[in-house]
Amino acid sequence: MRICMVSDFFYPSIGGVEEHVYNLSQMLLALGHKVVVLTHAYGDCSGVRYVTHGLKVYYLPIKVCYNQCILPTAVCNVPMLRAVLLREQVDVVHGHSAFSALAHEALMVGSLLGLKTVFTDHSLFGFADLSAALTNKLLEINLSMVNHAICVSHIGKENTVLRARVAKHRVSVIPNAVDTALFTPDPNRRPDNGVINIVVASRLVYRKGIDLLAGVIPRFKKTPNVNFIIVGDGPKRDLLEEIREKTNMQDRVEILGAVEHAQVREVLVRGHIFVNTSLTEAYCMAIVEAASCGLQVVSTSVGGIPEVLPNSLILLTEPDIEAIYSAILVAIERLRNIATTTSPSAASSNGHIPPKTETNCRSKRAKRRKKQGNDVPFMPATVQMAAIAPGFDSENKTEPVLCPYRCNELVETLYNWEDVAQRTAKVYERVMKERAFTLSELIYAVYQCGAWFLAFLVVGHFMLRLLEYWRPRSRIEVAFEPRSQKGL
């Protein structure tokens, strides 16, 4: 199949959606599909570029309006989108993120051209404030023209079905994944003087709960040998710097600012505990990456987070300062009790299982890989952990997994990009069997959501008719395919 990924968010920008689009595209290429990516220009990064393994990226010359998104005009970019979709002979248009205006426009153009369309929602939204109401309405209109939708968690599916009024049988749940070969533990990078590092990696904005974090940090002022490493940038950075100054913790709170995703692992392996204080999340990639690096994870129990990791790898807490502080103390106590729960020589001063145990973990991992290969079916985390970890209890009675290499092993079993790509390909195969929407069906679907948007749909349709007359499909040159993609 020929698939076009569309989103305002792609490299060189860094984030969860960008990483998802890139990794999914790479795995689909490995499975034998042709994939191109459409996004807007990022500064000097414009035109057509080829990235790893011949992935073709169109950086369209469209101005950014706000927060890396283009102005949602609905019709102004129709000529460019039509030219790319026809030139690349696309079968499936796959849009990403409800915030992406470019994705919504491409989905509309794809539907009007008779192509199959898929949309992945990466976020959760409320219903009360004005911005959420407008976003929900736009999502409802666009999903009425889409063949199938994908959410990254079950709570995300419930949220999308409610706010977009889409039939639940048209929505699938396919989680994100993490490359455990890149996010590997390295306990030797941790301090060996008894200091415990707490890592926070997040955009420093309100919805990430940075106000909660600002309330938690001062409570460790009188707790010796506990330091914070904060990765990320945003409007709440000033608040954290102010708290650091007021509490005189300049030597214990390290704020690194924005870090390239390729360098995140280098920061994570320095830590013992990872803290996530989000107020809303559909799926949190950061806690999976942290667990893959062997950190004990403390997170607020909001949105789809309880679905992401099993209880043996995460401590869930309410989004409250006291609750988060108490959960961190539990994680610290676990690390400091390693020596007493095993033997006097069983744990080193940097809080990890000794080399002999690590070697056992890695050898068991290699044996399981050899036995199972990469064909690991996806199941909910709790179901898989019951099969993987003896004595696992979904009621949070299981013993925590403290060996960093064992954490990486369990995350690898739960999530991998090959499984995500295979399940996404099945969605493509399903929609390819469906017939294309007729114009009357699209008009009726949009009219059910609101008659005012019909104007954009009708204008888009007549623009496509005019373009078909002015520049017929037969006169559009088929795109050159690099040797690595020929025959796909």
Automatic annotation (TrEMBL):
Provide the protein name: phosphatidylinositol N-acetylglucosaminyltransferase
Q: Which SUPFAM superfamilies has this protein been placed in?
A: UDP-Glycosyltransferase/glycogen phosphorylase
User: What Gene3D superfamilies does the record tag this protein with?
Assistant: Glycogen Phosphorylase B
Instruction: List this protein's GO terms for biological process.
Output: GPI anchor biosynthetic process
Q: Which residues cross the membrane?
A: 442-464
**Entry annotated with the keyword Signal:** no
Recorded hits in Pfam families, A to Z, give: Glyco_trans_1_4, PIGA
Entry's EC annotation: 2.4.1.198
Q: Where is the PIGA GPI anchor biosynthesis domain?
A: 40-129
Q: Which GO terms describe its molecular function?
A: phosphatidylinositol N-acetylglucosaminyltransferase activity
| Keyword Flavoprotein carried by entry | no
**Which keywords does UniProt give here?**
Glycosyltransferase, GPI-anchor biosynthesis, Membrane, Transferase, Transmembrane, Transmembrane helix
What the entry lists under InterPro entries is as follows: PIG-A/GPI3 (IPR039507), PIGA_GPI_anchor_biosynthesis (IPR013234)
The pathway this protein participates in, as annotated, is: Glycolipid biosynthesis; glycosylphosphatidylinositol-anchor biosynthesis
Please list the residue ranges that the record marks as compositionally biased, kind Basic residues. 362-371
Annotated region Disordered: where?
342-372
GO CC: one term?
A: glycosylphosphatidylinositol-N-acetylglucosaminyltransferase (GPI-GnT) complex
